[in-house]
Amino acid sequence: MTQRRLRLLLAEGSPGEAAAALHELYAGSDPGLELTVVSTIATLLPTIKIVDPEVILLDVGLSLREPMDAVHLVHRAAPGVPLIVIADPAEKERAIHSLAEGAMDYVLKGHTDAHTLERVLLAALERNTLAGLADMLRDQVTGLYTRDGFLTVGRRRLEEAMRASSSLVLICVLLENLQALRDAFGPGTADRALIDVAGLLKGCCRRSDIVGREGEAQFVILGVDAVAPSAEVMRSRLEQHLAVHNQTRSPLGPIDLRTSIGSWTAKDAGTFAEFLDAVEARLRPAVLEPKT
Fold first, then answer.
1. Based on CB atoms within 10 Å of each CB, which residue in 77, 146, 221, 288 is the most buried?
2. Of the residues 133, 160, 187, which one is the last residue of a structural domain?
């Protein structure tokens, strides 16, 4: 299935259906699978640091508490590692809900055959590849995703939201007086303003949200698993942080920001690029407005 040894961490009890399917899938392959199996959540968490897995499979039936607590704990311990949930068929609704708690995919017991696991593992490895690619697409000034990087990650988040029947919000931000700051104080001050805006945006977000620099003076925030009203809350938080920040910028002058917001649900049609373009379009009249 793959040309390199895959480090996989599996938390599963008896009878070991997933472990057996994985051994079948990788039987005779070279270099094959580096599989670590644990049987309790308490053992799983410290093992993550030791194994440094590329994919984690979690049987939520091992949790002695609410199953979603286990999903949350594992995702928090390894937020960058694709997490695949294994659940009883009777727990399918909870398995679906796990996608909103940090899981990438789920499989149901009785269906964890080699073919099914191959499908979900290929998707997990693709996600890792995309994440690595997106890390290369960073803006040199702010460290945020460039437009290409943001689109790469955004498309994946929209696909995940569609599968989980969750929603996204988008906030586009324009630094209106970037050129005026450059003219008045020089290019170094303009770059300082861009870095300040990047910091303000990240300070208004959750860790799961994504921030990008779309153009010279344009930024964007993607709120993951967020409902439409939260966009207004985030915008209000940004305005408050900006007001406080501007009080400390003298004598370099204030930063002026314009924002537009939008939301997406699983019922909406269209691509992520179309969603982004629609929200960005609400900023463009201000960009194109002639000076008087």
1. 221
2. 133
